[in-house]
Write a structure and sequence with these properties.
This protein is an alpha/beta fold and 678 residues long. About 1% of the residues have low confidence. It binds adenosine-5'-diphosphate and magnesium ion.
């Protein structure tokens, strides 16, 4: 058996079960091994029954009097007594009738589970059970919990892993042995064994240190190598012309924030250089990234160069086009703006493409696909990517071919990636932070609302609507789901339109609508032909409707902090105060996470908190960046991260040849294609 063997080579895994594994993305032994536990339950300390306390417990005992009966249709209960001289504990299983027959009365068992008060009696419900042996899998140890799916639970995964121990023992090393020794790290195969079968919590800690180091080391190597490669590429220089910058700034209806000035300046300096710019501007919603991007575009356009602005959706592309027409009008650059989106007629598209090819168009605004696949570039100097993190090597290369050189690339994001994370993940980018919001912005009044108070809330909202304001309603899903008790956009739309707000104009917007339908509805909302827009998170990024002052988020507990914060950023953009209501799905008390939204308006702080409470996944989720994942290293491990980053830097600076470390090389190559965002 090897890492490439199919899982069906394992005992107990037939074609049916293999399908379940496939649902978790696991097909081979190697993938099974690489599937690290989500968390652990510590059942390593055995308690004597005499000392048992509520909570996670492991006891060693014999089991008697196992009986099974129906308590109602479709519900069987198995009860048994565990114990001996030092007392006894009741065990209860639901719908596991085989338990009763399988228990051997004269044998000692390890019994692990949660000891708690249920139906006025203390018992352990659905405990794990194993004959007391030297190597328990599911009890009496630190028990790993894996991602599960219907019909495939952690117990089975542990059983499968237990069969591949010989394969784990042969796993090859990734780190250079000298580096491993220098940093006092354990061997890779031992670490992988330890992550699935930790001996103790101390052991688990050293295991995690080794794997976390490797992870950050590899990510940093990948990022730094990409950066070095970018620096070899040649772009065009766009000299800084003070007059152009002055004229643009003077034409704006507001004065720039200091942060906007500073970041604008950084970008101008980047574009002067012959190495391509590769800069990420992070700025909270409403921090004014568009103007910063416009500054860069104006500098290029005024000197005869072309700029491309890519938005993730057609909706946003159209909105950017509107904004930029207005911003560039005073400079008489508006006539060289071209919009290119999927829903345009062929004739219109052909005209746009011709204008781009002839160089008459200087600023092309559209979605990625359109701009990349079908357009001849004339003199491309700058590519601006808004709210879009997925811009891989392939796209880069395509652009390079089109332009004949590597254009300067500027990415904008409202996803507040904490600096520690940004440095690790985006080591190849230069990062600017717009940490300041334009003056005079009112905070958005945020309130958590229990469904019991829906009526009162609606009355309050209706007053605002009557005063001429508009409302966004965001739901976690489009249609009713059978498995989740969440209010869907369709449901809420129907209810509002026919009942609670039947005297108002209500629209529905979601990702399943056709592009032109979406656009129509959005335009109706922008023109105030709708009072209420019920939507899914399609409205999340960028959409700007200054008259919308209310955001109602349904099933608010389902959203990540960063995401909810971005949604909230859709309101309070005009002169009126903004309101954000976080409607809970039930009347349970709100979590600390949600309460943080009430008190903080700082996207970066909220992201840090999300990171702390939910782990990096919370941030990756909003970044649509699932493949790149810190599985082991916690961002709070600042020392580990610094250590691994330094090691990577030293490795590259030193006389090392990555080719000598094939395993490391293959890891790094995979990561290079993933981290290569720009
Ligand atoms: P985001 O960073 O979320 O993309 P936008 O660029 O859409 O933000 O800007 C949000 C709003 O703030 C826009 O209406 C824009 O015109 C306005 N704005 C941008 N910069 C300033 C500024 N320095 N002073 C006042 N308003 C500004
Ligand atoms: Mg924006």
């Amino acid at each position: 058996m090897t890492v490439n063997s199919p899982l069906t080579d394992l005992k107990g895994i037939g074609p049916e079960l293999a399908k379940k594994y496939a649902l978790l993305g696991l097909h081979t032994v190697g993938e099974l091994i690489d599937n690290f536990p989500r968390r652990y339950d510590d059942y390593s300390v055995a308690t004597s029954i005499a000392d048992i306390r509520p909570g996670l417990v492991t006891i060693t005992a014999r089991i008697h009097h196992a009986t099974t009966r129906y308590i109602r249709r479709g519900m069987q209960i198995t009860e048994a007594i565990a114990g001996g001289d030092d007392g006894s504990v009741k065990l209860v299983w639901f719908n596991q009738p085989y338990r009763a027959a399988s228990i051997k009365a004269d044998q000692d068992y390890f019994i692990s589970g949660v000891y708690e008060l249920k139906s006025q009696r203390f018992s352990i419900t659905n405990p794990s059970l194993e004959l007391a042996t030297e190597f328990p899998l599911n009890t009496a140890r630190i028990v790993p919990i894996y991602r599960e799916t219907k019909g495939l639970v952690s117990r089975q995964i542990r059983q499968a892993l237990n069969q591949v121990l010989p394969v784990i023992a042969t796993l090859t090393e990734t780190l250079p042995v000298w580096l491993r020794d220098e940093r006092g790290l354990m061997q890779r195969s031992d670490a992988i064994l330890g992550i699935h079968f930790p001996d103790s919590s101390e052991h688990l800690q050293t295991v995690r240190r080794r794997l976390g180091f490797e992870e950050v080391f590899e990510l940093t190597l990948a990022a730094l190598m990409n950066k070095r490669q970018h620096q070899q590429e040649i772009s065009v220089t766009v000299p800084f012309e003070e007059q152009i910058a002055r004229k643009f700034v003077a034409s704006l209806p507001f004065s720039l924030t200091n942060a906007q000035r500073r970041v604008g300046w950084q970008i101008f300096l980047d574009m002067e250089r012959v190495q391509p710019m590769n800069r990420l501007v992070e700025g909270d919603v409403g921090s004014g990234k568009t103007v910063v991007a416009a500054m860069a575009a104006v500098m290029a356009m005024s000197q005869g160069w072309q700029t491309v602005l890519m938005a993730p959706t057609e909706l946003l592309a159209r909105q950017h086009a509107d904004t930029l027409y207005t911003l560039l009008q005073p400079l008489k650059l508006d006539s060289s703006i071209i919009l290119l989106v999927g829903s345009q007629k062929k004739l219109q598209k052909d005209k746009a493409r011709a204008a781009i090819a002839s160089g008459q168009a200087k600023l092309m605004i559209g979605t990625q696909a359109l701009i990349q696949d079908s357009v001849e570039m004339h003199k491309l100097a700058l590519v601006i990517i808004d709210e879009q993190h997925r811009f891989g090597v392939d796209q880069r290369q395509k652009l390079q071919v089109k332009a004949g050189h590597m254009p300067h690339v500027l990415s904008l994001t409202a996803t507040p990636i904490p600096r520690s994370l940004a440095l690790t993940l985006y080591g190849e980018l230069d990062v600017s932070v717009l940490a300041e919001k334009p003056k005079g912005r009112e905070p958005i009044t945020t309130e958590i609302v229990s469904p019991n108070s829906r009526k009162q809330l609606y009355a309050k909202i209706d007053d605002e609507l009557a005063a001429g304001r508009q409302m966004f309603v965001v739901c976690p899903l489009i249609s009713v789901s059978t498995s989740l008790k969440l209010r869907s956009a369709e449901e809420v739309f129907k209810e509002m339109k026919t009942k609670d707000f039947k005297h108002r104009r209500v629209g529905l917007l979601h990702g399943k609508l056709k592009a032109d339908e979406k656009q129509l509805i959005m335009q109706q909302f922008v023109r105030h032909e709708l009072d209420i827009l019920v939507a899914t998170t399609v409205i999340e990024v960028g959409v700007d409707v200054p008259n919308a002052s209310i955001m109602l988020i349904e099933g608010a507990e389902r959203f990540g902090l960063a995401q909810a914060h971005q949604l909230r950023g859709r309101v309070g953009r005009g002169s009126d105060a903004g309101y954000c209501y976080l409607m809970l799905s039930d009347s349970k008390p709100p979590s600390r996470r949600l309460r943080a939204l009430e008190t903080s308006q700082d996207g970066f702080k909220l992201a840090e908190l999300d990171l702390e409470l939910r782990g990096p996944g919370a941030i990756y989720g909003t970044m649509q960046h699932g493949q790149l994942d810190l599985r082991i290293a916690k961002l709070s491990d600042t020392e580990l991260i610094a250590d691994a980053r330094t090691s990577a830097q030293e490795f590259l600076d030193g006389p090392n040849d990555l080719l000598q470390y094939p395993e490391l090389l293959s890891h790094v190559n995979r990561l290079r294609s993933l981290t290569n965002l720009n």
